[in-house]
Amino acid sequence: MSELSIDIVSSRADLKGFINLPWKIYPRECNWVPPLKRDIRHLLDTRKHPFWKFSEQRLFLARRGGEVVGRIAGIIDNNNNDYHNEKMGVWGFFECMDDQEAASALFSAVQDWVTRKGMDFLRGPLNPSTNYTVGLLIEGFEYRPTIMMPWNHPYYVRLVEEAGFTKEKDLKSLIVFEEIKLSPRMDRLVRRLEQRGKVWSRNGSRKNFQSEMALIAEIYKSAWADNWGFVPVTPEESVEAGKELTWILVEGLTYFVYYDQDPAGMIMIAPDFNPLLWRLNGKIGLSGVLKYLLYRREIRGFRAMLFGVKKRYQKLGIPLVAANHLTKALKDHPHWEYLEFGWTLEDNDAINRFLLEGGAKINKQYRVFRKNL
Predict the structure, then answer these.
(1) Which of 19, 100, 244, 310 could form a disulfide with 222 if both were Cys (CB 3.0 to 4.6 A apart)?
(2) Rounded CA separation 370/125 (Å)
């Protein structure tokens, strides 16, 4: 085996090698869905993406004989560390051939860098935080991921564990192939709430989606503030997310639930565009529109990206009203085949139990790892 080197990404050619590596690792017949390369390039751009206004990064490549065989990002998220009063270093954007020496060397490079920065522990994969793509797939390799969810080879779990990382938190994806079923007791509660006239719903506005994103961020902060791994999004991140999400959202499937005039909860549902992304293979190009017209019928599912209710309304039945609205909204899309809720925390017993009782099944599990320094 040729000699291994670990190099810091320092040139345009290095960055290209960093972005292109997954296409060498994942064959076309596997379940990995290629992201758009332009999106990854933008997300990593410290001059343009708002995440890097409060964060630092160091990108590394593993090479054998001049050939790139692995990559990783070291990240310091200062917003997270200020919010939780901790010194967390992050690893993310990890991809590697089945080469333990290369994987361990990449993790060591990140560990050395964050240690010099004064961090106490490493957590990952976060790409680059819990507000983006999170976790390593550990169960459900036989299923293709839904949009903005990761997929990796099974051997990745071994590469991470043999580098000294252990489980910190598992995340679950639950899938339903029919409408969510409310029990008779729950259905009666929803009807009583709606009859009182204090609880009502409205669809999100695609035309005014930037202002809607600010409202989503407000509800998100209240609903998730006490959850593991939560960190508030900045206004600039909210604007950026609005730009990225506008083109994929269906207006009738992003909506808000109000109590009197106060926004109490929301659900954001996106079509699962991954079948189309698989066709695009990382680039839109001139053929992108043609491929969309040819293959849009392959888009037959949805992903629930956000489902949250402000803390003070969680025991008033608002989650049931939101779920009931979702069931009605899906009836306007008669050709859908599945809805995946991804992701939920393994110990979020209330939402997991509600989804399981409503007919959902766990189909994938992801893990976030930790290593004390």
Answers:
(1) 310
(2) 9
User: Which residues form the domain of 138?
Assistant: 4-170
**pTM of the entire structure?**
0.94
β-bridge pairing 338-345 and 301-309: parallel
> What is the C-alpha separation between 49 and 69, in angstroms, rounded?
27
CA proximity to 371, closest of 11, 108, 194, 188 = 108
**How far is Cα of residue 271 from the mean position of the Cα atoms in its chain?**
14
Q: Which helix (H) or strand (E) holds 194?
A: helix 184-196
Indicate whether 243 and 195 sit together in one domain.
yes
Q: Which of 108, 135, 170 is the endpoint of a domain?
A: 170
Together in a domain, 73 and 196? no
User: pLDDT of 273-324, one tens digit each?
Assistant: 999 999 999 998 777 778 878 888 899 999 999 888 998 888 888 888 888 8
Residue 154 lies in a domain: yes
Asked whether residue 75 falls in the same domain as residue 186, the answer is no
User: For residue range 161-201, what is the model confidence (pLDDT) as tens digits?
Assistant: 999 999 999 999 999 987 777 777 777 877 887 777 788 88
The sign of the torsion formed by the CA atoms of 286, 292, 294, 295 equals positive
In a domain, 226, yes or no: yes
In the block, residue with structure tokens 């899309």: 333
